């Protein structure tokens, strides 16, 4: 009897741990406790205000990911950017997650998403409807599909209109670490 | 003599390599402005196959790659319906093509497309690129992604690639209606001024 109880307790612990390890980012559909108002401050920029993030001359490696909560492949790769931020934060790598969510969904979708998934990287929102003007300023080759990522250090930069695995992302960042 | 031979061989090699490279780029990136678009035969929500050649009286086409599941595409649905209402009678009908892999996006399957077309009262065909062979030819990367074709003697020539207008959020705040401006120019026998524009969209799911 006692043995059984211990076994159950152990199992429960093990499953918890497992869950913690996975800590997969929830999609819109399964965000729990949606009703809880997320009281976090969100910086919102138009492109003129945002442009400074693309041109920092500070010797750091900036990894800027354009995403949105409605973009499934973006949500899938977010944990890799979070991992990068956690593992390379000490090595002068700075991750910035730029949300292109719709402004009327900042409160109901974006903020709860940031909170529920405990995003540690800096998240800002870009709200500028005149896309044809600003998209080419991010990168001439960008057609406008999400996700998209820029990695830059001073004058060296690379643009990616694609999804990443953690390994692929790490490989690209390492090119800048050299 | 030997030198000349060497020079010629080098020239031939360079030519072959560059020809191959140029070819490859075109294949990867899809149609450019001025290219002739190949016709296709895709299934419509009513079960019938649709091709550009079915439209004997058309002067051209407003082709949109769109889907049920992308919020940007949804925001533009009413404006696409309006485009068809305005331009189909003038010879530029809308043709909508759903390019996503439905095993990745089940809500974009043919039944869901049918439902969407009925609910919204689409006045134009809503075709499924089931084998996903048409959108790469166009070089479409996202939904919504617009292509305007003009029917000419040499075929359907690509005249415009890009966005519908410059404000996805609010149709009443739009300052430039890119697609309308382009079609108006073509109808007046003029060249399109702004042939390419960019906009955010959902990546097409391969």
From TrEMBL, chain A:
Q: Name one GO molecular function term.
A: oxidoreductase activity
List keywords of the entry alphabetically: Redox-active center
Look up the domain of life of the source.
Answer: Bacteria
Q: Which InterPro entries match?
A: AhpC/TSA, Thioredoxin-like_sf, Thioredoxin_CS, Thioredoxin_domain, Thioredoxin_ResA/DsbE_sf
Q: Does the keyword Iron-sulfur apply?
A: no
Xref: CDD domains: TlpA_like_family
| Residue stretches making up the Thioredoxin domain | 17-178
**Protein name (record):** AhpC/TSA family protein
Q: Which organism is it from?
A: Mariniflexile fucanivorans
Q: What is the lineage of its organism?
A: Bacteria, Pseudomonadati, Bacteroidota, Flavobacteriia, Flavobacteriales
Automatic annotation (TrEMBL), chain B:
Q: Does the keyword Cell inner membrane apply?
A: no
UniProt GO MF annotations: antioxidant activity; oxidoreductase activity
Q: Which residues form the Thioredoxin domain?
A: 31-188
Which is an annotated Pfam family here? AhpC-TSA
From which residue to which does any coiled coil extend?
A: none
Keyword terms, alphabetized: Signal
Its signal peptide is: 1-21
Asked if the Swiss-Prot or TrEMBL record annotates the protein with the keyword Glycosyltransferase, the reply is no
In terms of PANTHER family, this protein maps to: OS07G0260300 PROTEIN, THIOREDOXIN-DEPENDENT PEROXIREDOXIN
Q: What is this protein called?
A: AhpC/TSA family protein
Please report the organism this UniProt entry assigns to the protein. Mariniflexile fucanivorans
């Amino acid at each position: 009897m006692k043995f059984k109880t211990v076994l159950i307790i152990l199992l429960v612990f093990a499953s918890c741990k497992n869950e913690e390890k996975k800590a997969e980012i929830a999609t819109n559909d399964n965000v729990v406790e949606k009703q809880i108002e997320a009281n976090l401050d969100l910086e919102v920029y138009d492109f003129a205000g945002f442009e400074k993030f693309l041109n920092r001359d500070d010797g750091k490696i900036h990894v800027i990911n354009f995403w949105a909560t409605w973009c499934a492949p973006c949500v899938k790769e977010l944990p890799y950017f979070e991992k990068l931020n956690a593992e390379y934060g000490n090595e002068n790598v700075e991750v910035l997650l730029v949300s292109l969510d719709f402004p009327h969904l900042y409160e109901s979708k974006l903020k709860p998403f940031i909170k529920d998934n405990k995003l540690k990287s800096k998240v800002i929102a870009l709200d500028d409807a005149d896309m044809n003007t600003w998209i080419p300023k991010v990168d001439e080759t960008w057609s406008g599909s999400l996700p998209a990522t820029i990695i830059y250090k001073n004058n060296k930069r690379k643009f990616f209109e694609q999804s990443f695995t953690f390994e692929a992302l790490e490989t690209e960042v390492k090119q800048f670490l050299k | 003599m030997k030198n000349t031979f060497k020079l010629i061989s080098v020239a031939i090699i360079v030519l072959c390599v560059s020809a191959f490279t140029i070819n490859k780029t075109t294949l990867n990136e899809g149609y450019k402005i001025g290219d002739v678009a190949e016709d296709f035969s895709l299934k419509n929500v009513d079960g019938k196959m649709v091709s550009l050649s079915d439209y004997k009286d058309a002067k051209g086409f407003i082709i949109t790659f769109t889907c049920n599941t992308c919020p940007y595409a949804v925001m533009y649905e009413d404006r696409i319906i309006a485009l068809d209402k305005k331009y189909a009678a003038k010879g530029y009908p809308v043709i909508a093509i759903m390019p996503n892999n439905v095993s990745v996006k089940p809500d974009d399957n043919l039944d869901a497309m049918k439902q969407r077309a009925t609910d919204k009262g689409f006045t134009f065909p809503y075709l499924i690129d089931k084998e996903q062979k048409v959108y790469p030819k166009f070089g479409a990367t996202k939904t919504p992604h617009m292509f305007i074709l003009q029917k000419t003697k040499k075929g359907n020539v690509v005249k415009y690639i890009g966005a519908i207008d410059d404000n996805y959020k609010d149709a009443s705040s739009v300052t430039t209606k890119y697609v309308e401006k382009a079609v108006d120019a073509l109808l007046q026998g003029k060249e399109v001024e702004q042939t390419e524009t960019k906009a955010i969209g959902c990546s097409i799911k391969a």
